[in-house]
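Re: beginner question about structure tokens

> Can someone show what the tokenized structure looks like for a real chain? I only ever see the sequence side.

Sure, here's an example I had lying around. Input first:
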Amino acid sequence: MTFPRIMDFRVLRGLVKISGGVMSRYFKINLFRTTCLFLILICFGTFVSSICEMSLALAFRSVEIGKKVPEIRLKTVEGNEFTLSSLKGKKVALLFWWAESEEKEKRSLAVISRIEALHQKYKAEGFEFVSIIADPGSKEKVKALKNQYGWTHHVLIDEKREANAAYGVYIMPTLGLLDQEHRLVKALPFTHSLPDDAENEVLVAMGKKTRAELEKERRTESFAASDEKSKARTHLNLGKSLFQKGADENAKEQLTKAIQLDSSCGEAYIYLGLIQLKQKEQRNALDLFRKGMTLDPSSRKGRIGTALALELGNENGKAVKELESLPDNQFDRAEVNYHLGRLYEKEGQKEQALSAYRKALQSIFKAE
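And the corresponding structure tokens:
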């Protein structure tokens, strides 16, 4: 994210508010804030913009492929006790999902419907399906969904998010496939192709399709789509370059062409959202960020942009939650804490603001 265009330079106005020769807390906050902004601009520049492109779409951050996964002890939506070890000897599809919004519920249900169908088909051959939702307030809703769709798999409620924490899940839905000894053999974070990918991986795990056959199918599909995607990537990169140079209208044209060629290009939606954000088009920006995040939920640029769009709509509390929920990342830690500092300050939370600015400064000096 290009700081000169996103950060608000009006923060500089409070720099010299000193009364009676004594440095006030207000001045300390403004000093931290201004120093953060200055050092971020000087020390990071385009470096952070390029580094932030790195994907952090790790499905399970606390479990390695080939290692046995942590035990799970939770209750089902019906209130019954469940342990993962009770399925020992079975191959298991383990899905972490969320239904806090219509969008997240829709993409979760798309995966569940595919795996549920395979569970019903291959249960007798030793295949089990377990889904875990980390939202205690949705218990009755999930129970209704189970009845509505006739789910036969184990549906668990992770009220304290213990399983999510143990597995290191930050992106939902996220699917893991376990062998009979409950070692992790495949981990799939959300992408627009997750329903297809999940079904194919289960078929491979159950011996209904070989890995070679799956790779051949993917190569065939990839070859057919590669030309369009390659052209889309060219337009995307040109659009990003134009955006960095401040040529927003030309950037918009290139990003739109990228989407026309590849409708799954989440990054193009996110950059269009950044353009709308610069133009103070809050609603349009938020819609574009949400579209982009649906396609690329691991995008930190999209998450930060969403927070700034919420702030533009005077929804500071939601903006703070959006930024606070971001997993720590050394490459944009300074930027995230800078924005948190501003938002805390707007909400009158001076101590939190000062702490956030301090963390931003510490991140910059450590990076050096």
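Each token stands for a local structural state, so reading them left to right follows the chain. The beta strands are 73-76, 81-83, 91-97, 127-133, 154-157, 174-178, 184-188.
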